[in-house]
Design goal:
- Helix content is 26%, strand content 25%.
- The chain has 7 helices and 13 strands.
- Strands 1, 2, 3, 4, 6, 7, 8, 9, 10, 11 and 12 form an 11-stranded mixed sheet that branches. Strands 5-13 form a two-stranded antiparallel ribbon.
- Helix 2 links the parallel strand 2 and strand 3.
- Helix 1 (32-43) crosses helix 4 (126-138).
- It is globular and about 55 Å long.
- The chain starts with a strand and ends in a 10-residue tail after the last helix.
Length: 302
């Protein structure tokens, strides 16, 4: 059975200033998602599942999904703040989504095979999808054996501001022992990597560190663990208006409880994306260069 790719496309990019998932950035009008789908096809994924919001479903189907017909099977699920376990209701004042692992939970009814998870607005590169697909094929029929594709921090920076990245603690044998979310990562005037701590102070960030770009590989049992942990989250934080249920939160819990192992699979790929509006021209130029180099055709889906 071929693995499935689950694409998180429910969020709005507030810093970018629009629905960046639908922004045409490639020479043929492609979105970043189109390149991810194309790379996933080449790596051997058999199905794509998007998680989106109901309010832009029509536009999404017309502008994105329609172009994949005849190329790969596609399914759509929806993230909604009212999608909660029985007996739980959101605070009426809450408008913020429940976070990335809540989005992953929305795929439980349509995914029954090993699956990868990515962001819709990040470019991961062909090598990353091959690494992910190879791992997922190796864990078919197994439980509790997950992975994360690890990027070198040097390959994930923006020239237009500080970025947030998950700093990975990796054991000597290549397994994740924890992820710490770090913010404001950039190079200072002296060219050294720095980060902004929660109290606003500046601290060094380790050169050459492995970071998470939210590219994960799971087997279907992950949904059951996620349901259990989401109930715990709601009991502790459900009345908070801005608390979110993140993938690293669940992953850290399962690693520390011994219920899973999570291999860190390094990739040589260079990330790029549109974290900031000012990133857009460079991203357009990057795709043009990749087409000129023969990595991608002029038009991905025709």
């Amino acid at each position: 059975m071929k693995p499935t790719l689950f694409i998180l496309a429910a969020g709005m990019g507030s810093r970018y200033g629009g629905l960046k998932q639908l922004d045409a950035l490639g020479p043929g009008g492609e979105t970043i998602m189109d390149y991810s789908v194309y790379d996933a096809l080449r790596a051997g994924f058999g199905k794509i599942v998007f998680v989106i919001r109901h309010d832009f479903e029509d536009e999404f189907r017309k502008k994105v999904i329609a172009k994949y017909q005849g190329h790969i099977d596609v399914d759509v699920v929806f993230q909604d703040i009212n999608a909660l376990p029985e007996g739980y209701t959101p605070d009426p004042e809450r408008s913020k989504p429940w976070g990335t692992n809540h989005a992953v939970l929305m795929g439980k009814g349509v995914i029954n095979e090993p699956f990868g998870v990515i962001n819709a607005d990040d470019y991961y590169g062909p090598e990353s999808f091959q690494v992910l697909a190879d791992f997922l094929r190796s864990v078919e029929g197994k439980k509790g054996e997950y992975c994360m594709v690890g990027f070198n921090i040097e390959n994930t920076l923006s020239e237009n501001g500080g970025v947030s990245r998950g700093l990975c603690q990796v054991s000597a044998d290549g397994f994740l022992t924890g992820v710490n979310e770090c913010h404001g990562i950039c190079r200072n005037e002296e060219g050294k990597l720095i980060q902004t701590l929660p109290d606003g102070s500046i601290a060094p960030f380790p050169e050459g560190a492995s970071v998470s770009m939210n590219m994960w590989g799971f087997t279907p049992d992950y949904f059951d663990y996620s349901e259990r942990e989401f109930i715990k989250f709601l009991d502790e934080h459900g009345k908070e208006l801005k608390s979110e249920f993140y993938i690293p939160t669940v992953v850290n819990t399962l690693i520390h409880s011994g219920e899973c192992t999570l291999a860190v699979k390094p990739t040589p790929s260079k990330w790029f994306g549109v974290t900031f509006a000012a990133d857009r021209p460079a991203t357009v130029a990057q795709f043009r260069h990749l087409v000129d180099e023969g990595i991608y055709p002029e038009k991905l889906f025709s």
